[in-house]
Design brief:
The chain has about 240 residues and is α+β, with helices and mostly antiparallel strands. Helix content is about 35%, strand content about 30%. It contains five helices and ten strands. It has a four-stranded antiparallel sheet with strand order 2-1-5-6. A hairpin with a 4-residue loop joins strand 5 and strand 6. Helix 1 runs parallel beside helix 3 and helix 2 packs antiparallel against helix 3. The longest helix is centred in the first third of the chain and has 39 residues. The chain is elongated and about 115 Å long. About 10% of the residues have low confidence.
């Protein structure tokens, strides 16, 4: 009885292992060996008759399970083989030919004229000296300016009293319209002029450093060089 129980346990464990881990050739070899050597011959003579009666159904079940596992293991291989056989080399599609662009489409967009800019900003209304403002860039900083505004920038290499033109205009606008640059407005569209008032220094800033228990203390002051500008005109170039 103990030998018969161990035989059943071994058969069941072998069946599970073969279903989970064994490859197809091992399953085929096990099935062939099982058909040649029935499990009843492995029992002791005392229980050979009982083992022959009870182990035959187990051996048949084990052989059927091995055959099922072998068929399921070979199914993906046959499917992949059929897929690879059925896959024919695809014909290369001809590259779509594009017609050459016309000279009108290939030409760069024309710049707006002064009349177009004037009509976009004010229409038919005549602008006053304070009706227009602009956003200019000086020394990496941006300023919104209008006529008679005073702005402070970093030191510029210009003499006091000199009238300069602020070249980098990012935006110009009125209450009738806005002109945006990409990133700058065209030089022939809007002009901004300013007068250098003075060159001076900012208020002193105290810089104090200390490390406690080290006898280290430093005091330093800093005054930045600046230039004051007065905006004299923000207007369209045709004015």
């Amino acid at each position: 009885a103990r030998s018969l129980g161990m035989q059943r346990l071994c058969v069941r464990g072998s069946q599970l292992l073969l279903q989970r881990h064994c490859a197809q050739p091992v399953c085929q070899v096990a099935a062939a060996a099982l058909q040649r050597l029935p499990l009843s011959t492995q029992c002791t003579p005392a229980v050979s008759g009982l083992a022959a009666q009870r182990s035959a159904p187990l051996s048949l079940q084990f052989a059927a399970a091995v055959r099922r596992h072998a068929s399921t293991a070979s199914a993906p291989t046959s499917a992949s083989a059929s897929r690879s056989a059925s896959a024919a080399p695809a014909t290369k599609k001809a590259a779509p030919t594009t017609a050459p662009l016309s000279t009108a489409a290939a030409a760069a967009p024309s710049k707006p004229t002064s009349a177009e800019v004037a009509s976009a900003l004010c229409g038919d209304v005549e602008l006053g000296p304070y009706d227009m403002f602009a956003v200019v860039q000086i020394g990496g900083k941006q300023y919104k300016v209008r006529a008679d505004d005073v702005i402070v920038t970093n030191r510029l290499a210009c003499d006091v009293g000199r009238v300069i033109r602020l070249e980098k205009v990012l935006l110009a606008a009125t209450k009738y319209g806005t002109l945006l640059g990409t990133p700058l407005v065209e030089r022939d569209a809007v002009e901004v002029y300013a007068t250098v008032i003075e060159h001076t220094l900012t208020k002193k800033v105290q810089v104090f450093k200390k490390k406690r228990r080290k006898g280290y203390a430093r005091r330093q002051g800093h005054r930045q060089d600046i230039t004051a500008l007065r905006v004299t005109a923000v207007r369209l170039c045709e004015q």
